[in-house]
Amino acid sequence: MPSIFHPTDLTGDREQAFLIALRLAVSAHAVLTVMHVADNEEDADMGELPGVRSTLARWGLIAHAEDMEGFGALRMGVRKVVREGRRPVQACLDHLDRHPADLIVLSTNQGQGLLKRKVAEPLSRSAGAPTLFVPKDASGLVDPRTGEVRMRKLLVPVDRKPDPRRAVEAAMRLAEVLGLSGAHFTLLHVGSASDAPRIDVNMRDGWTFDRMEREGDVVGTIVRTAREIDADAVVMTTDGRDGFLDALRGSTTERVLREVHCPVLAVPAEG
Question: The domain that contains 62 carries what CATH number?
């Protein structure tokens, strides 16, 4: 069964990341792990974690929060974990060592990052799993009342290196899992058309693709294009030091993440 890992600091303004993680878990029949690392024993309260079954009941997927038969019919799993300690990154990585995740879903805040940037950056670098970063102001992608997914437009920046096929495949898989029948993919190459990679895509009924070549600064062009097409998500392949949130060197992914106002799915080039 696929596994989705969602660390939370329990602040209400990060609900959208939880909703997206839960929606993905339902659609993919995955195990969703919600984890909180508390500074002290008083804050280590399992009851404070987001309510999975109450949310599913609100979405009409089960009859009520205590409907275990209905929950079982969804063929998903839930694991809630609370750890006490002052090293949230290490606590999360220790958990991921024992329970590897197929996807990590993190809440972000441009300029500050998940919970605090000192948590997001080393966690995402060290975990090595595809990571969906959800800005706290990215409201409306999953309707909190109905669970309806409103994601339609996906921007996929592509280049010859790192291998862009993993990002394209991840974008298509995301749309497939979420059941986005009207998904539109924009494959963006920043540079000359002659240098654009050749990528074959497997069309699905109702999906549309377009290819775009633009000159200019890579990060600025990606950010401007995301705004122009009103992208619901950006999907990027990341590679080594030019990939996952290298805070000291300022990676392409990190700079895009800081400036766009939609989720960014970062996919390791290998793994």
Answer: 3.40.50.620
Q: Is residue 140 part of a domain?
A: no
How would DSSP label each residue in the chain?
--EEEEE----GGGHHHHHHHHHHHHHHT-EEEEEEEESSGGG--GGGS--HHHHHHHTTSSSSTT-HHHHHHTT-EEEEEEEESS-HHHHHHHHHHHS--SEEEEEE-TTTTTTTHHHHHHHHHHH-S-EEEEETT-TTSB-TTT--B---EEEEE--SSS-THHHHHHHHHHHHHTT-TT-EEEEEEES-GGGPPP------TT-EEEEEEE-S-HHHHHHHHHHHTT-SEEEEEE-GGGSTT-TTTT-HHHHHHHH-SS-EEEEES--
pLDDT tens, position by position, 31-74? 999 998 876 655 555 556 788 999 999 999 999 999 999 999 99
| 118 and 10 share one domain | yes
Domain shared by 128 and 239, yes or no: no
